[in-house]
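dude i think i finally got it to work??
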Amino acid sequence: MHQQQKGFTMIELIMVIVILGILAAMALPRFYDLQTDARVAKMQAALGAIKSASAIAHSAFLVAGTSPATVTLEGSSVPLVNGYPDVNTTAASSGIVIAAGGLSDYDLTTTAATDTVLTIQVDASHTTCKVTYTESASSGAAPTFSAAPAATDCD
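look at this
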């Protein structure tokens, strides 16, 4: 009687290994640098938080109608300048930080000379991975925000 062969040949097994190796070599670089993408996403979230906080605080200022120096958001008093959250010498007590919920996951600094610019960094070791908030310069002028950093800023 003639027996039928069962299983794979050596050539078939080698071809499967080669194909899996090629697929792994193509997929691995895509997953290699997820930390940069995560830092960029974190800074985009910070930018969204301060833009929203600024708009909400200004809305509360407009609703008050009496040009208050502070508004209360979720039980916290938010200091204002020209109807928008301010920037203080102590970054954590800045109106924009309070309005945005504290921003405790970020490194916060203010410009010492003017105390009108708040810099929000992802961490101390990535100094170019940041966004800034510049408080309102005059009545009727909105604050300015920097653009979200690019991936090259957060390497």
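Residues 35-154 form one domain.
im so relieved honestly
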